[in-house]
Amino acid sequence: MALDRFLSHLAHEKRASPHTVSAYRRDLVQFTAFLTSTCGLTGPEEATPKAVRTWMMQLMEAGTGPRTVARKLSSLRAYYRFARKMGLVAADPTALAEPPKAPKRLPEFVAERYMATLLDGITWPEGFTGARDRLLLELLYGTGMRLAELTGLKPVDFDARRGTLRVLGKRNKERIIPLPSPLVALVQEHLLLRNSLPLPPLPGTALLVKPDGKPLPRRTVQSIVNHYLGTVTTQAKRSPHVLRHTYATHLLEHGADLNAVKELLGHASLAATQVYTHNTVEKLKRAHSQAHPRGGGAPVTT
């Protein structure tokens, strides 16, 4: 079946993550169901440009957001590139389809004063769990790594002598992240506690584990981050990815080079990193408005 071949191509040749492959599968299955139920077609190979546009309109009318529709269109385009290469279709029905315009949304991040309060001002729970939770938050904020990268860490990825972590990112792309000396010390302390657990972890298991030695699940990490951020901020989004945004934004606000931030985040292109410059530009605009005599802020009195 063409869909299975495409998904296998994504997983094994493109080295897409299981999460990405699953998302492509959902989009293509949904599109196929639309073609059969609404257009009377047997599958994506029979789709027309009109069918693609109608599907997009139907999604928008059902309340699907423009970013989600654009992502689904991207899934179709990837499939048809593969299908044309394999000779399954003569033309790409998505070629003229335009993704819906989405309002610009700045990445949400946590203010520096709140992060300082969280990491330096709260009392962490005693024992292994408290130390692990602190390290988890310090790693996310101190490295900007993705959730999947964090849960994929193993003790062998940590190089205490060099003060680095080896991270496996999207499409199995490896990168080395430098750690500040306080974070190196936290990892070392965690490993000592981890190795003293009553039930020693299995060989090759994750760096971050539960007290029974089993790897820490993604949902547990999300819950931990949400809980601790909730102690210092009332903002709605309190996820591991918000800490990734926070890491990048704070680096740029303190003068880090954009290309360096790109490498640290593991972005494939500079365009993905440039979104964080909007936050720093907005901050500069506010400073200008408040401080410059012609900035539109409160008048300066002498």
Q: Explain this structure to me?
A:
The chain folds into two domains: 2-85, DNA polymerase, domain 1 (Orthogonal Bundle), CATH 1.10.150; 112-286, Intergrase catalytic core (hpI Integrase, Chain A), CATH 1.10.443.10. The model has no long low-confidence stretch (mean pLDDT 88). Strand 2 and strand 3 (174-178) form a beta hairpin. It starts with a helix and ends in an 11-residue tail after the last helix. By secondary structure, the chain is mainly alpha-helical. Helix 6 runs antiparallel to helix 8 (181-195) and helix 6 crosses helix 10. The protein has a three-stranded antiparallel sheet, with no helix packed on it. It has helices spanning 2-13, 18-39, 49-61, 66-85, 112-121, 127-143, 147-151, 181-195, 218-229, 240-253, 258-265, 270-274, 277-291, and strands at residues 158-159, 164-168, 174-178. It is globular, with a radius of gyration of 23 Å.
What do we call the CATH topology of the largest domain? hpI Integrase, Chain A
Count of helical regions: 13
**Count of extended strands:** 3
**Beta fraction of the residues?**
under 5%
Radius of gyration: 23 Å
- The H-level CATH homologous superfamily of the largest domain, spelled out, is Intergrase catalytic core
Helix content: 55-70%
What is the CATH architecture term of the largest domain?
Answer: Orthogonal Bundle
